[in-house]
Design brief:
With 258 residues, this protein is α/β, with parallel strands linked by helices. The chain is built from 11 helices and 11 strands. It has 2 domains: 173 residues, Rossmann fold (3-Layer(aba) Sandwich); 76 residues, no CATH class. Helix 3 packs parallel to helix 6, helix 5 crosses helix 6 and helix 8 packs parallel to helix 11.
């Protein structure tokens, strides 16, 4: 089974001036799975993401990706190794077209990011690749629109396309459906399922219906610790999890389960 684990953490701890935000987290993310991190506000989910992508350095503990210790690696190094993160706030260039946004991400992946002096003809060679990615996220008909013209849900789809352009082996999605209406949530949920076909996804997500419908494994965090782990139908019945979510989200857990 060891070769099936793409990412694992061992006793991961992060302290901020005496406050323990992440307290001995042991995660095992299986290759090819969608793994969700859930938990009430302040549970430590985003801090775990920041540790995994090296925006924060662990106080103690170890992070292993593809059998290699990446605890001390820099963000750019782990991106090159295949861990790519999509942020909570949409990170696209608003005044460039949808196609140009994806093309820039492809330039970064091919190491030509700073070649602004290269002729348009050479950069146009990336267009077919960019259009293929836009096809994957149902944005091909909108290729010539500027990113700022896109509805919110489509902007998130564009962000997923630019993340895919970096050829991630492991995609980290931070609240991919946050702030969306029902229709957009449904579209982005299906999109995540679609793009997970040949890769592994680790996501932080508040929307329990999304988690229930696409996550293979769920880790529940509370006060920086994993209090439950497993498939949705198991964790949603866990008394500790129901207590952590206190009533209002307890109903949400039950509703998503139903």
């Amino acid at each position: 089974m060891a070769e099936d684990i793409i990412l694992k953490t061992e006793d991961l701890i992060k302290e901020f001036k005496g406050f323990i935000a992440v307290n001995g987290v042991n995660l095992q993310v299986q290759r090819g799975h969608i793994h969700a991190l859930i938990g009430p506000n302040g549970a430590g989910k985003t801090t775990v993401f920041n540790l995994l992508t090296k925006f924060l350095i662990p106080t103690r503990g170890q992070i292993v990706f593809n059998g290699q210790d990446i605890t001390a690696a820099k963000p750019a190094q782990i991106a090159r190794q295949g861990i790519v993160r999509s942020f909570q706030i949409s990170a696209t260039f608003p005044n460039l077209t949808v196609l140009q946004n994806v093309r820039i991400a492809l330039q970064r992946a091919t190491g030509t990011a700073l070649h602004f002096w290269r002729s348009e003809r050479i950069l146009d060679q990336l267009n077919d690749q960019a259009m293929d990615l836009l096809q994957q996220v149902d944005l091909a008909p909108m290729a010539d629109l500027t990113a700022v013209e896109l509805p919110y849900g489509r902007k998130r789809a564009l962000e997923i396309a630019t993340t895919l352009a970096m050829q991630p082996e492991l995609m980290l999605l931070d609240e991919p459906t946050q702030g969306m209406g029902h229709e957009d949530v449904e579209r982005v949920t299906q999109l995540i399922k679609q793009v997970s076909a040949n890769r592994t996804i680790l996501m932080v997500e508040h929307n329990m219906s999304v988690v229930a419908s696409i996550a293979d494994t769920i880790s529940v965090l509370q006060r920086g610790q994993v209090i439950a782990e497993g498939p949705y139908n198991v964790v949603s019945q866990n008394p500790q999890v129901l207590e952590a979510y206190m009533g209002s989200v307890d109903n949400e857990l039950e509703g998503a389960h139903g």
